[in-house]
# Entry
Amino acid sequence: MTTSCSTASIFTARCCPASAQDLKRPGESTATVACRVAAARAFQEARHSLCNALMSDEQVSRFCALDSAGRSLLAAATEKLGLSPSTASRILRVARSVADLEGAEAIRTVHLAEALQFRPLRHPRHV
# Structure
């Protein structure tokens, strides 16, 4: 799917904007990052009419399917890190966004691994 940078103008108002610095790859201009974000949001709009952060549990099940390696990674992370079902769902939403930023149709294990890295550390009193 190809999109211009202006296609997501209305859509971006409904979602939290990503920081260009957070999404920048070495040697990549801010304008290039903005185009990747616009394209990812256009993918999301076409897929389910809202940003990934606002997906329902049913939509997460439908649009965030994992292959066997991804399911194994999420199961291992859930066990080792003590993830709650809501946290696992949030991680899947982030993995879907990472995949969208790459223009990937499916969430790959590398997308899930990146999403797991974004998970905040547990508060010391919960450890």
Summary: The domain at 55-127 is CATH 1.10.8 (Helicase, Ruva Protein; domain 3).
